[in-house]
UniProtKB/TrEMBL annotation:
Coiled coil: none annotated. Its main location: other. CDD domains: PLPDE_III_ODC. SUPFAM superfamilies: Alanine racemase C-terminal domain-like, PLP-binding barrel. It is found in: Cell projection, Axon; Cell projection, Dendrite; Cytoplasm, Perinuclear region; Cytoplasmic granule. One of its GO terms (biological process) is positive regulation of polyamine transmembrane transport. The keyword Signal does not apply. This is Antizyme inhibitor 2.
Length: 425
């Protein structure tokens, strides 16, 4: 690889290394004084991102991947994906600036937010970003007014119509807020025509954590109908955007391969090879979730006696539960507890021996709020302030979410990449 990412951006490791090895080195090498200062950090395996990319190309050969920057905007991730040739889906001006700063050309950026701030539309116009999404009449009018490329005979602006999906079974739903219903599409396509705006395609998002891969097939079928409406009105429709929602972890309920097979069949049926439609997807969690591991240290600890008359623990003491406080919580890096209903499981730096007693334990974030609970009902050995806990699969919607409410700073990220992955990219 050469270009956006260089060997200075990461620690080169040999094949067979594990992120845990690196974490261990970093936590063991952390002096007491540093632990007091740095209470959480990530280790990111960029090789895992590279492997995900090749898996994507193999499973969905007709789909061009774009990366949803909001999911994890860390420089290592953006650089490696730019290096691999991905396009970028940006939700605002800051994200467009970020990817342009690392050398991504405007032609590889989609401003994919159906509700945009006027200043951000103007920024897109000034910096050559011409592919934008919309899902309502007001937005169309706003873009026409604020994006100079929308005016005149040589209209360079291209708009993608974002349609709603039935995402009622998805863990995180997007169509509650975004996307137009099928029955309102014709009206919007007519409005665009009247305003001389070229609608070039359709996008959707089935939501994240969708248990039914057929949701993609249904939305692809809906998109076909909208393509036909658009063509009847004279729009040159040639972009189909499948959105995100592809799982980022190995043990997902519905596997990526299963989804790919449904998507490929639906594409063959509704958008067969040679139909002239450019098919793309805007993936977030798929690329980054499993690549990031988080280490968080215990910053405070409290033992609470459980008042259960007549109940004693084996050693004769009263039963107790231990509350551990971490520097990150639900209002920061562990927001998935709130939004995705996850139950983060810590990995202990040292596996407890079978003789070690286990105690009822819970993990809490730093905000003075009874809701800031990360995990309850755990049975852990006695841990201490300054001990590190490790959490895997922490790459999506975590970076940049440091608990500002709890006074935390942005977490440091140490990137690693194996020599083999570096060679294949
Ligand atoms: N595209 C859009 C418009 C989104 O809003 C999102 C995430 O919210 C994504 C793509 C990425 O979704 P995911 O992380 O589930 O792949």
């Amino acid at each position: 690889m050469a270009g956006c990412l260089s060997e200075a951006d990461f620690v080169m490791v040999e094949e067979g290394f594990s992120t845990r090895d690196l974490l261990e080195q970093l936590t063991l090498g952390t002096s007491q004084a540093t632990t007091e200062e740095v209470a959480a950090f990530f280790v990111a395996d960029l090789g895992a991102v590279v492997r995900k990319h090749f898996c994507f190309l193999k499973c969905l050969p007709r789909v061009r991947p774009f990366y949803a920057v909001k999911c994890n905007n860390s420089p290592g991730v953006l650089k490696v994906l730019a290096e691999l040739g991905l396009g970028f889906s940006c939700a605002n001006k800051a994200e467009m600036e970020l990817v342009q700063h690392i050398g991504v050309p405007a032609s590889k950026i989609i401003y994919a937010n159906p509700c945009k701030q006027i200043a951000h539309i103007k920024y897109a116009a000034k910096h050559g970003v011409r592919l934008l999404s919309f899902d309502n009449e007001m937005e169309l009018a706003k873009v026409v007014k604020s994006h100079p490329s929308a005016k005149g005979a040589a209209c360079l602006l291209r708009m993608v119509l974002c349609i709603a999906t039935d995402d009622s079974h998805s863990r995180s739903r997007l169509s509650l807020k975004f996307g137009v219903s099928l029955k309102s599409c014709r009206q919007l396509l007519e409005d665009a025509k009247r305003n001389h705006v070229e609608v070039v395609g359709v996008s959707f998002h089935i939501g994240s954590g969708c248990p039914d891969p057929q949701a993609y097939a249904r939305s692809i079928a809906d998109a076909r109908l909208v393509f036909e409406m658009g063509a009847e009105l004279g729009h040159r429709m040639h972009i189909l955007d499948l959105g995100g929602g592809f799982p980022g972890v190995e043990g997902a309920k519905v596997r990526f391969e299963e989804i790919s097979s449904v998507v490929n069949s639906a594409l063959d049926l509704y958008f067969p090879e040679g139909c002239g439609v450019d098919i793309l997807a805007k993936l977030g969690r798929y690329y980054v979730t499993s690549a990031f591991t988080l280490a968080v240290s215990i910053i405070a600890k409290k033992e609470v006696l459980l008042e259960q008359p007549g109940r004693e623990e084996e050693n004769g003491s009263a039963p107790k539960t231990i509350l551990y406080q971490l520097s990150e919580g639900e209002y920061g890096i562990f927001n998935s507890v709130l939004f995705d209903n996850t139950c983060p499981t810590p990995i202990l730096p040292k596996k407890p021996s079978t003789e070690q007693p286990l105690y009822s334990s819970s993990l809490w974030g730093p905000v003075i709020d009874g809701c800031d609970c990360i995990a309850e009902g755990l049975w852990l050995p006695q841990l201490h302030v300054g001990d590190w806990l490790v959490f895997e699969n922490m790459g999506a919607y975590t970076v940049g979410m440091g608990s500002l409410l709890g006074g935390a700073q942005t977490c440091r990220i140490t990137y690693a990449m194996s020599r083999v992955a570096w060679g294949t990219g």
